[in-house]
């Protein structure tokens, strides 16, 4: 065995021992296989650890991920701004603002409706910190009423490098920062960020009213910017088009933001804004989507409006979507709802959460709750294996993720770490991988980024569904 291989093995062994000791100290993550009896509190704990592993910027002294350090401290330097902080998107190191904002909105929705679940899990403060890590970054990015930085890092340059985020400055490059302005606008990005800040303002209303008010002020400003200067954000941030193009357009984000502002303020002005968008984008907003996620918010708008207004027409729209998901949408032989080949479990977790929210307002509660529990059970191990790193039986050990794939030694980390056949030296606890194909086939292989990459938005609906299910256990 050569010295490099020996060092790699020792590093992996040390990391595994640490991860095992941490895992054993946690509550039981899965009880049995195939019976659906899971400790949702412990899985929420694990999911929040994943979000901490995705943090960019100056990390706090009480960080819980020992193999992560300060990173990307020059972000924004090229434009004379402090754009440090926020989250890395997936297995890469770009800060894509659109999916990051969608993630914060969905996480905030779960906290607003199920704070009792986070309290029961002992994760309330950690959950608030997870959201605030994102919203603090958005406040930095909103540099004026009509200027917002929606991306830091170039996607192609980033994907050409495999290594630790802490080592990026050693490449000698300061990452570019991209913004939207009145020159072209960026309605989808701005609308989603407005929704995220409005939702978070509700989450912080009692615990930190001053911060809540700041979030709401920025949410209103971003909404005005989004509605007045209409364009898809990739018209100005062209690099994002290769990674997070908004295929659904921006009508759903305008309605989504207006709905969250209505919930945050109870101001009839925003009900009028919702009605305006339904009149303009009625074909889309009154229709049935085929998924819910970072791109298409239509189903979320329908369910949230049913919750906020109690109006039967929105409940009917929510029922149309969830009845299709539960009864008609394609399923794998073992029961996973199959909506797209990329990030299959992300879609399953998202629609599980949305339909649990529909159940919350009285729409087919028994059927939708059973569906949500089944999808989460599939993710956690009902088929005989878990798809969440560090959780349950036979979890993934080779997620497509730069930071966790880099050993402590040798110090240099490059694409040889990506192709290493062994497990990731650091356990990316709580990360849900993309998932199996339409036939339930899955290979735990790092270079299969379609099925084995992880991402911020992958865990969002999944974690919201966990909180909803834990809430149901307490009532």
UniProtKB/TrEMBL annotation:
One Pfam family linked to the record: Glyco_hydro_9
EC primary class: hydrolase
A GO BP entry: cellulose catabolic process
Position of the signal peptide: 1-19
Single Gene Ontology MF annotation: cellulase activity
Active-site residues from the entry: 400, 444, 453
InterPro entries per the UniProt record, alphabetical: 6-hairpin_glycosidase_sf, 6hp_glycosidase-like_sf, Glyco_hydro_9, Glyco_hydro_9_Asp/Glu_AS, Glyco_hydro_9_His_AS
Enzyme Commission number(s) from the entry: 3.2.1.4
SUPFAM superfamilies: Six-hairpin glycosidases (SSF48208)
Reactions listed under catalytic activity: Endohydrolysis of (1->4)-beta-D-glucosidic linkages in cellulose, lichenin and cereal beta-D-glucans
Domain of life according to the entry: Eukaryota
Family assignment from sequence similarity: Belongs to the glycosyl hydrolase 9 (cellulase E) family.
Protein's name in the database: Endoglucanase
Organism: Oppiella nova
